[in-house]
Protein 1
Amino acid sequence: MRTVAFHWSGGKDSALALTALLADDGVVVDRLVTTVHAGGASTVHDIPVDLLQAQAGSIGLPLQTVTLPGPGLDGYVEAMDTAAVGMRREGIDAFAFGDLSSSGVFDHKRAQFEPLGIEVLEPLWGLSSRECVERFLASGIRAVTVVVDAAVLGPESLGVPLDHGFFAGLPDGADPCGELGEFHSFAHDGPLFRASVDFVLDAPHRVEQEIRTTDGVRTYAYWLSTPRSRR
């Protein structure tokens, strides 16, 4: 039996991978782990920590946040290595993620965490993007878009439920599951949750980020609609 910390983004793939992991008799999910910026929102998806806590509470698992110095994912390796050492001391045997094989990150994550005594699990790894979409649609998980790549989708695509119509309407060349960053989502209801997570969305706004890649620094533009707790 392996004790697992699941890396929770708050989106559809995380919800789907966690669902598969919770059904695995060979693991015990001890906690959710999310990287956040110093301002108090998750990296990439820009979900405020109080909503991440609401998701975790509805799922029934504690949430551990790991703060990155930024911008973007700068400092991820150093911050997560420090967190991994601490979690290993607390009895965590493995980290699990919601990546697909098209992301190509499995070997990289194994190279980072296995030397620290942490196994890496990827419950969705064998699925194609199309298969992942089909499994998501059959799962009953409900999610909406909160970030879209401005080069692929416009602000009208924010706050849209991830249903058959959304996936069918993606432009030609877009990955069906958004694995190339075309869109990110916020999961708020379905069998994984004990109760629906109540939220509202901010008005769409456009941001640009410089991100270091293997090809150098590139500038990306996104449309965001940040989810907020309904008060």
Protein 2
Amino acid sequence: MKDTLTPGLKHSFSYTVPATKTVPHLYKESPELQAMPEVFATAFMIGLMEWTCVQLLAPHLDEGEGSVGVHVDVSHTAATPPGLTVTVEAECIEVKGPRAKFRVAAHDGVDEIGAGIHDRFIVAWNRFERGVAPKRDKVPDQPLEEAPA
């Protein structure tokens, strides 16, 4: 990680919500989610917030580094139908060693739809992969199947 990663850095990212990022698209095998309204899903909003923070971090990372999300504390306060553009504003508010904390807020052009805090941990991908390898060794040889619909 470069020493250019400091509190106060800001980044924004805009994304037009397609129908495929609505609640019924989270888990196709879930009849409960299939019955819900077609609005921007909380999980996808959080993913968009993470994506914005990843973009903010990118120029401040060394070759072979990336980041993983380690904490999310956000509210989702307004529904967004497909077709609206959501803009996420992220600000780095703290850097402690390899951990970076961000204030995030999302707006759909009509309402603020969510806001909160997100933490990411900067990692060397090769070291991260070594840590995940023992779990991968425990995956059964048979192909994973999706749950029945």
